[in-house]
């Protein structure tokens, strides 16, 4: 039937009215890949990752057909981009009850389609269940599409579907790929483009670790990612997506879906909110001039397991990043001019160089070489470690991870793995991947979204996920991994751990500051189920600020909190409730005393800030 249309001005004002105030703060003066990175930072923070199995019910909120055949009153029929006929009645329709695993023909049922094939990211979470590009589609078309990219189909047609979408040989202009593509109908080409561009922004920083186009035979390589974090896709593929975005503007259906997904995941598709950003980011032109070389590469900190490098930036204005080489091999890239290279071996000599690269991905020549020999030992942790494990009532599951490595840690290669028992053997499911950066002496929490702790909220957690890794029962073995290597283990692999991990909160003893793959309950203090005091903060006996260590006690507090240590450097303290409301502040609080009065506070949980360091406490 005829598509429901709204005037462009109304659509635009409606879209922007739904964006939370301040959501895109910091983007106003940016363009190009700098804008892309800032938007990545925004849409990757504080979002909720659900289990793949949760998506079926969510589609009743995000993907009902209120725009073509059924109108605003529809509460059951799904909108399937692969079978929708915008100008007339659909050949078949589904409700969420019609989900199936496979089909031999169109119209038998639907299942969940990864618009960016899950082989791209090895079926790992959080990518595996991201609602922005995991959508309900006809099961047969989904199967036949396989992991073929979206594209422009040529004269050789393998399948034509009931709404005239098709699978054919690729004729994407400028692309070397000649294999099969799935071409959606014109009505949804912009929708597809904006979903794929969302993927490129949301998972910036991980794209180079995914399965991208690096085949020895690129004419048959189905994945259009090119391994770059900024551009993300092959240039010819980007050009096609920009064309689709322009020819099929943002619709009311996309606006509504964006708002519905935001209510569920707490992040947004920026190209539905701000369509002009597509060209602002990818509409750049590059030159053929090799960028100038970064200079003055030095080692500013040397330790047993890491070395921190610093250099002067390239003088070229179109430089977008730097590649760091360790003994001649690329080991990292960064947009800044300083980086810590970790996972080094003690008492080992390394050589480093740096190259700049521009928005055309031309590389400069090598910087000067610096050589350093790591120390035999140091005072830091050799890697991240799990510092708290909470296995409580129902979905009260939380893991706290601590960085005491002496340097900021890029989390992109870290993941959580969990072991299940099938009835015949133990096995690991696809992991949950971490992302972003954690600073030295910083802790963060991974929380189940259905958790209901009395002293910790979802808004406080860095990662919130219902991935299998956060559904443990207390019998499971859980690992923190770096790439494929185990860093820290909770429990014992290959056996039930119910006797030590069920219905308990485990806090790593303050004397333990190294990860271990051999679990020992002697390293942990055990508390009752659902205990969560000081979750998300360094231990109250180990609060570190400006290289000073404080002891804070008692906790819970009655009338006063005492602070022991070199307190004269603390310029201000603040006490906040969990909504962020400031309850009390004091300048130079320890000038003539070593305590903070809390007797006027009502009973409950609060946050105490010592300048920029925060600790949670309970007022009795």
Q: Could you walk me through the main structural features you see in this protein, from its secondary elements to its overall organization?
A:
This protein is α+β, with helices and mostly antiparallel strands. The protein folds into 4 domains: 8-282, no CATH class; 298-373, Immunoglobulin-like (Sandwich); 385-528, Immunoglobulin-like, CATH 2.60.40; 543-619, Immunoglobulin-like. The chain is built from 10 helices and 34 strands. The strands form 9 sheets. It has a 7-stranded mixed beta sheet, with no helix packed on it. Strands 17, 18, 19, 23 and 24 form a 5-stranded antiparallel beta sheet that branches. Strands 10-9-12-13 form a 4-stranded antiparallel beta sheet, with no helix packed on it. Strand 28 and strand 29 (560-564) form a beta hairpin. Helix 5 packs across helix 6. Residues 1-17 have low confidence and may be disordered.
Mean of residue pLDDT?
92
Number of helices: 10
* Largest sheet strand order: 1-22-21-15-14-25-26
The percent range for strand residues is: 25-35%
Query: Runs with pLDDT <50, length 5+?
Result: 1-17
**Main sheet: strands, sense, barrel:** 7 strands, mixed
> What's the helical proportion of residues?
10-25%
The value of Rg in angstroms is 26 Å
Kindly, what is the distance between the CA atoms of the first and last residues, rounded to a whole number of angstroms? 64 Å
Structural class: alpha+beta
Number of domains: 4
Quaternary form = single chain
